[in-house]
Design brief:
about 240 residues; alpha/beta
């Protein structure tokens, strides 16, 4: 076996699973979407806006078929299955795994998003997992798209998120980092200085910037503010 290639609909958890699987196997983890963004110097949605769906698929195909790493877990984008050359290469050389996120789970992840959208926005969830936004109001449509992206995104180790404190416990605080997904900010990870009580530093509703430093084998998200504090101090 050379590489393990994870495919599936957006939000199926390819990156989250990929990071954990790579850790267990001692493999390198590769996020194909990040490679695509780096190749163009733009975010995915900006690439699509500039080149259209067909142009994006060509770029996605070229990037995926150009991956030459060995002993890696590769998380592909949701549309990679439509990249014929790349998928033929993966099927011939690697082990390809499709992560099937049921329609019900997609709907559950989207939760009450419809209630949070502008009145003129209609959102439909297709049985194949596609999410369609219909509106004549571009600003409202962009807001709905951002809400969906926050819910569907995969949480990545090492990435920084702007979140909101949802619960305070004796041992730390729980922080919503998007889409209703919470991570634990342990009291020892709040500051470089000793924190006696969580309530001395944080309160429910506080907006904080946190970094995901670990997703454990039970898929629990662990957060820290210490690294960010150290970077801020070094800049000063």
């Amino acid at each position: 076996m050379n590489n393990i290639v994870l495919t599936g609909m957006p939000g199926a958890g390819k990156s989250t699973i990929g990071v954990l699987l790579a850790k267990v196997l001692g493999y390198k983890f590769i996020d194909a979407d990040i490679l695509i963004q780096n190749s163009q110097g733009m975010l995915l949605r900006e690439i699509i806006a500039k080149y259209g769906d067909d142009g994006f698929l060509k770029i996605e195909n070229d990037v995926n078929k150009g991956i030459t790493d060995q002993h890696a877990v590769i998380a592909t984008g949701g549309s990679a299955v439509y990249c014929t050359e790349a998928m033929e290469k993966y099927m011939a050389e690697d082990t390809v795994i499709y992560i099937n996120l049921p329609y019900e789970e997609i709907a559950n992840r989207l939760g009450n998003i419809k209630r949070g959208c502008h009145k003129g926005v209609k959102i439909d969830i297709e049985e194949d997992g596609r999410v369609c936004i219909y509106t004549d109001d571009q600003e409202a449509g962009n807001k709905a798209l951002k809400m969906i992206e926050d819910i569907a995104k995969d949480i990545e180790v090492g990435k920084i998120y702007d979140g909101k404190v949802t619960r305070i416990m004796n041992f730390g605080a729980f922080v919503d980092i998007g889409g209703g997904r919470e991570g634990l900010l342990h009291i020892s990870k709040i500051s470089n200085k000793r924190v006696e009580k969580v309530e001395d530093v944080l309160a429910v509703g506080d907006e904080v910037r946190v970094k995901v430093y670990e997703i454990d084998n039970q898929d629990r998200i662990n957060l820290t503010m210490k690294d960010l504090e150290e970077n801020k101090e070094s800049e000063e």
